[in-house]
Amino acid sequence: MKKANEMTIVEAARALRARAFTVRDLWNATRLVAKEKNDNIFAYLELFDTDDTAIDDAQKRIDTEGDKAPILCGIPIAVKDNILIKGKTASASSKMLENYKASYTATVIEKMRAEGALFLGRTNMDEFAMGSSTETSAFGKTKNPHDTNRVPGGSSGGSAAATSAHMTIASIGSDTGGSIRQPASLTGVVGLKPTYGAVSRYGLMAMGSSLDQVGPLTKTVDDSEILFKALRGRDEKDPTTIPDDLYPKREVNSTLRIGVPRAILEKGVDEDVLNRFNETLEALKLKGHTIVDVSLPTNAYALPIYYIIMPAEASTNFARYDGMRYGLSKHGKTLLDDYIKTRSEGFGPEVQRRILLGAFVLSSGYIDAYYRKAHSARSVLVDEFNNAFEKVDVIATPTSPSPAFRFGEKSNDPVAMYIEDIFTVTANLTGMPAISVPMKMVKRDEKPLPIGIQFTAPHQAEDVLFAVGRAVENTQLD
Amino acid sequence: MASAKDIRHLAELSRLSVSDENLPRLAKELDGIIAYVGQLNELTIDVDKTPSVPLLHNVFRDDCYKKQDGVDTEEIIKAFPKRKGNSLSVKQILSHEEGK
Question: Whole-prediction pTM value?
Fold first, then answer.
């Protein structure tokens, strides 16, 4: 039998019900591995103490309710450090919130807790979710379990590495421009960015409010579906959450029409990655799925659009970190000095860069050329995707243009780092759901490295993503 | 090109201080990013275009006080860096004269 910590949610839930082990055995085994590996991998900023009451309650439910107990009952989950659990530190890997204890609990945590899930710890991330390598964390670098000289991607790098190295059964993260999918791709796990508004953001620290979503990082597509269904749903505390039937329902056909925007794959994609991508499409074709060329001309501008809209929204959201009500608080002579000292000492370089960039694109004289133009281009992009989805069920690209890179390789060149997000930002701009699923590995320095394929579906068509994701998993078995 | 003056102005708007030492690096980085996002100028589109299917939807609720009294209040007060009783203590806003 597989070791308990190496199991998926489905396997662990089955083993708990078959009395192969207890909730406490599963917790202890997973926490032990997490603790042992963390010195090297540094996926966790903190591992939580054992919560005996929660463990006993979960066991009682499994004993009394059996198969009727929620599938997450007794399952250890890792949580990205920008999601609040009342009474626990929530730092967003920033000095600004290093000693901040959450004053309330995020809805996604309440929902998982109601199902009996257990929380293992808070995972490392790029500071305030700004980055694609987890190198901007104020507290240390998370390593890629497949090659510890390389980054795990970001910003949910800790959650991805923890899942990949079996330091948890599954994780949750947040995705503003690819922060779940790109680290999932680089560490070989499944990452889902749900439809904008599908999952409550109450208790998630805001970055780009028209882009942010919470979602799962898991070992399989089945687990992704399980966690998504546990997290999703309208929340009175988050008015941007959407009703179940906001968008037209999509049928999940047994064979799918897969659209490929060939034009944007012509340059900038690593050759091995492109080969894997084409092989995966070929394998899907053999299973009866259809590959169709789609034209999305504005997609070539998705990254510039994103790096205008996101900083504009972030600079606005980040005005709240002023040292007045919580978090770091530095004092000078005047109130203005207090603000400036707190923010300059609390925020790291990437956060400061994005705040300045946001102030620039919104400032008078530039707002028309940058922010308003980006806003209009985003609308064109949404229309292009909606049109494409009249002919296809999903749109496929690689998740990231290259496999995991070495530490320091891109950290001194912001634009090179931003290009990591070139295929992922689009789904955040359109609000459509997207999933990253591992393809076959590529080799770097003799080491096999994972790389993901990304599928995007129309709004609220996550079921189509799970279907195509499972199809990719099945081709890996051949 | 972002001049030293531009960066200082943006920093002032953002309530950040930029040291003389960091200024040249920051100017170079921002120039690089602004040049990259400036690719958008190649696109000819109507300004003020909105998507045919809106991304955001109005949400209405009853105009009433929803929060249950006392829920999370203690924790929020505990997080205050400076307090007097249950009130948040801040510096004087309208005047910066010393000793006030």
Answer: 0.96
